[in-house]
Design brief:
This protein has six helices and four strands; from the N terminus they run E-H-E-H-H-E-H-E-H-H. It is an alpha/beta fold and 143 residues long. The radius of gyration is 15 Å and the shape is globular.
Amino acid sequence: MLRKRKKLIYVAGILTSGGKNSRLKQFYYMIKAIKSGIKLMNEGYDVFIPHLSVLIDIVSRKKFGYDQWIELNQNILGRFDGIYLLKNWQQSSGSAEEYFISKYLELEILFENKYDYFVEENIGWDKLIKVPKYFNDRKKGNF
């Protein structure tokens, strides 16, 4: 018997802060994202936590580049039903891009910080961030 499909949510938030964070700080942000993911799972969502990429870097003993992770995450973002933005997500340029791609794709946008709902429309980053062309296919339903 097939179960009813749950909404799939992408958890977005600070991880590297422009590459300035130590591994310990990255673990802090990763744990914060995991706890939020567990909360969402308990609310009935399926989740994807890109913060877990830190573990890939550790296991592979290779530090993949920031741009490589951002490209991967943006490539898969169109497959989600929504995005969950952790507190202080605005401090992450990657999360800001993911926010605007989600807006463009008309995904459900959830915020950990309830006050972000009130300031969402006043951010003004949409003039600074270009949405990649391949998202037009997702917008048209061809994804």
